[in-house]
Request: fold
Amino acid sequence: MIVVDANVVIHLLMGSGRQVGDETPAPGERAAELYASDPEWVAPILLMSEVRNVLVTLTRHGRLGREDASAMVADTRALFEGRLATSPDREILGAAIDLGLSAYDAEYLVLARALGVPLVTADTFILQAAPEVARPL
Reply:
């Protein structure tokens, strides 16, 4: 079991994104490998709003169709079936204030700490603020 944030989920949904001739695994490939190695992903309920927001932005910019965006939301909901959680407001506020994170990012961190599992992210602020819990994608 691991906690993942929205950027990891978006990378998984969007696929490889690898450029021709590039041998370095793209974030989408790393996300797929992560899911294959540990498919029990957990996240705060906030994840759904963040994923929807990114997909709306991609749709508005013509990078994604409406039907694809809707399908990706459904895929995300299925991926996290029964594994979207809440954390105490006091702990989220405390972590955000103490570590200089947004309250959104602190939700993921507090959940990972509560479950005693890593938080996998591509967010450098989280990685720097909480190296004891956060792991790079």
